[in-house]
Amino acid sequence: MAGALSHIRVLDLSRVLAGPWVGQLLGDFGADVIKVERPGAGDDTRGWGPPYPKDAQGHDIADAAYFMCANRNKSSVTIDFTQADGQALLRGLVEKSDVLVENFKVGGLAQYGLDYDALRAVNPRLIYCSITGFGQTGPYATRAGYDFLIQGMGGLMSITGRRDGEPGAGPQKVGVALTDVLTGLYAGNAILAALTHRDKTGVGQHIDLALLDVQIAALANQSMNYLASGVAPVRMGNAHPNIVPYQDFPTLDGDMIIAVGNDAQFARLCAALDHPEWAAKEEFAGNSARVANREHCIALLSGATRLRATQDWVGRLEAAGVPCGPINDLAQVFADPQVIARGMRMSLPHGSGADVALVANPARMSETPPTYRRAPPLLGEHTRAVLARVLELDDAAIDRLAAERTI
Fold first, then answer.
1. What is the mean pLDDT of residues 302-308?
2. Which pLDDT score is estimated for 2?
3. Degrees (nearest 5) of the Cα angle 293, 298, 303?
């Protein structure tokens, strides 16, 4: 089945995570994604290991697991666009493409004639998406930006971690490069909106996405809590600033999460904990009261949850209609029957000859579901095929480019 974007060609000039993430997303939805990389080097994350996936003999394959997470459904083409012939190749690809994604420093591609203004002249319908740390404008525009740095500057680390005064307190980053991933998702939405506009008008556009902007936008209720109150939120560990109880609780053999979203759920929780009288207390009558009396409420609940094992509580609370669950490591995640039933682990044959395990796209679409056509590519694996297919170059022309190390 052809994907929803099977009529779209994307040039992915990006590296690391945010840009490659949107390229993979568009590829999953059917787009023809051409990943343009440096000859002999490629995307930095190819070497960001260990770990490396294994071949059938148990040996490491060429590219790191990090690279594999964001480069499915792409062809890899190596082009040295510091050379005039390389720039000509890219302009030829741009002429026959719909979208270009890049994450070079501001102005970094202008010296090669590959900036938006230059390429718009080649293809006025082009959607050109630039991803940087701080955007194309503003006093920080020329700075390099990395996810960890942005998590700190954008406020996420000010609300992540244990509360001040507790053991281990202090700012903490999220355990995945979340700002990069969110930027990739915002980029995907912006690109699809731009394509829809182009369908109506025939005109492309430049998309300017900054990791810092995305991080601030993605703080959601925490940003609004500040804007509404003028008080900066603080780290609260696993507690929720606006809802009680909504956090982790100790059990007889570990920890679990209870996520109560309304008063009826709270009453059912109290009954399941064998203390229905707690729900009738004036100090817990409504979420606002529970937030105001957070410490007392959590102390009572924690005293009760310590008396049973996690799985005992999960079964008991689920039966009572109380949202809850264990805190799984990734081995437990991929062994979970729900995760297995949803097919979140899948594999594809890799250019090394091995099958590589990958995480599936989470979108379930009745008419145009994501497709998995190609494993993350070896460096330059598709250079000759793409130049022949898209630019209609013959073997002699490709051989010449290879001899000159343009590709």
1. 97
2. 80
3. 135
Final residue of a structural domain among 329, 350, 383: 329
Do 208 and 251 fall into the same domain? no
DSSP-assigned states of every residue in 303-317: HHHTTS-HHHHHHHH
* The pLDDT of residue 1 is above 90: no
Among 329, 351, 383, the domain boundary falls at: 329
Q: Cβ(272)–Cβ(301) under 8 Å?
A: no
**27-59 per-position pLDDT tens digit:** 999 999 999 999 999 999 999 999 999 988 889
- DSSP one-letter code for 82: T
- Per the CB < 8 A criterion, the answer to whether 374 and 74 are in contact is yes
> CATH number, domain at 46?
3.40.50.10540
Distance (Å, whole) CA 333 – CA 308: 22
Helices H / strands E in the chain, number of each: 16, 11
Per-residue pLDDT, averaged over 194-219, amounts to: 98
Amino acid letter, residue 51: P
Just list the catalytic residues.
Answer: 180
> E strands of 183-240, at which residues?
205-210
pTM for this one? 0.93
The number of domains in the chain is 2
Are 272 and 387 in the same domain?
Answer: no
